[in-house]
Amino acid sequence: MVRRVLLWALLTVPFAVAVFVAQGCVDDSDPFESDCDKRVPLKCCQCSLPDVCPPWADKWPTLPAWCEPILADAGIDVYGDIFGDGSTSFCSSGTCVPPAPDSWKQVAFAMTWPNDPPACPAETPEVAFEGSPAPPDLTCPACSCDAPEGTCSLPASWTISSTTCNVAGGVQTNFDPPGGWDGSCDSASAIAPGKLCGGVPCVQSLTLSLPTIEEKPCTSHVEGQADLPILRARSGGPEQPIGRACTTSNALPPCTGGVCVPTQSSFSACIMHDGNQVCPDDWNADRQVLYKQIDDARVCTPCGCDAPSGSSCQVKWRIFSGPGCSAQTLENVISADMMSAGCTYLDPGIALSGKTAEILDYTKGSCAPTGGKLEGDVWVDGEVTVCCRSMTM
């Protein structure tokens, strides 16, 4: 420590003051005789004994930055925040911090994303650890399905029987509409009144097929985005931050109250310990739990859709006994979700001159979405805790 004894006395000239430097500091041009290093200029000296400093002297001066290497070369300790940066260290490219607590390792630590951390500083050239935080929880996006595209077709099969309903046998007469029928008046299969089939009226009952619904597969979507990302740690997906802890096999340079840890190039002065630890006092400004190995095998299953279901279609049909679909004889409503259209009794021998049909209602079905489920696990190994007094990112 620079030791100076500053003596002052009032001389004969009023208010004139003489200041004597006993040891440790020299004038820029003419060193005083002392047992201290004579390379230290007067401007780089502190008043190290406040009690003997004159009243006008600055007990804890802020020294010029160029004094730092001079004082360091001379091996001289200092008091207070001499360089105005909160540190009493002579670390030219680092930070003066307390020594690491027992069982903890002193490291220079940097964590970056998405690029790899910078190379270790020259003062701590050895990589003590490199790893990442555990990947965050993964929530798969929800899947959804569009309504299916489809159609409802009118009954295609119309069968006239010479027997009444629920009686087997008889003669079956085709009363089908043409292919692609739109439901307008169809007289192509007209049956004359009183026509006999095997000695009995050909017309005694009518059986129709049900309306037919045809729907295409639904189109699946990922809600909010076009695909399902897979979050991984440096294995194909968005990368996790990478932390690098650097150390040295040599002793770190001492400084006032601790050791110098390099903090250039985004590095911070930190300590490191195996396992998941609670940071010691004064080292809890930033805490990172990292893993040397991470295998993220989680995936979100692709979206899909079940087959359409729940659609409905109602059709009203009519038959006529007069020309041009006049003189309506009967009408009824059938639905695609019925077990069958059933059999309709007709007056025996009635004329069937034509028929019409119309769709009253067609409601599309829906598809239940599939996929969007999380599968797989995250495996981690090589856990360490890094604790920093402050963090540089």
Structural overview:
The chain is mainly beta and 393 residues long. Among the domains are: 1-88, no CATH class; 156-208 and 312-363, Gamma-B Crystallin, domain 1. It contains one helix and 28 strands. It has one helix at 67-74, and strands at 6-10, 17-21, 94-97, 105-112, 126-131, 143-145, 150-153, 158-161, 172-174, 196-197, 200-201, 205-208, 212-215, 220-222, 242-247, 254-255, 258-262, 268-274, 286-296, 299-300, 304-305, 312-322, 326-335, 343-345, 354-363, 369-370, 374-375, 378-388. The strands form ten sheets. A six-stranded antiparallel β-sheet has the order 5-15-4-18-28-19, with no helix packed on it. A four-stranded antiparallel β-sheet has the order 9-8-12-24, with no helix packed on it. A hairpin with a 2-residue loop joins strand 10 and strand 11 (200-201). The longest helix has 8 residues, at 67-74. The model is unreliable at 1-37, 47-60, 79-89 and 226-237 (pLDDT under 50).
User: What's the helical proportion of residues?
Assistant: under 10%
Number of strands: 28
Arithmetic mean of pLDDT: 79
- Give the terminus-to-terminus CA distance: 36 Å
Large-scale geometry: rod-shaped
Note the main sheet: 6 strands, antiparallel
- What class, by secondary structure content? mainly beta
Proper CATH architecture of the domain at 156-208 and 312-363:
Sandwich
Binned strand content: 35-45%
The whole-angstrom Rg is: 48 Å
Query: Stretches where pLDDT falls below 50 for ≥5 residues?
Result: 1-37, 47-60, 79-89, 226-237
Strand order of the largest sheet: 5-15-4-18-28-19
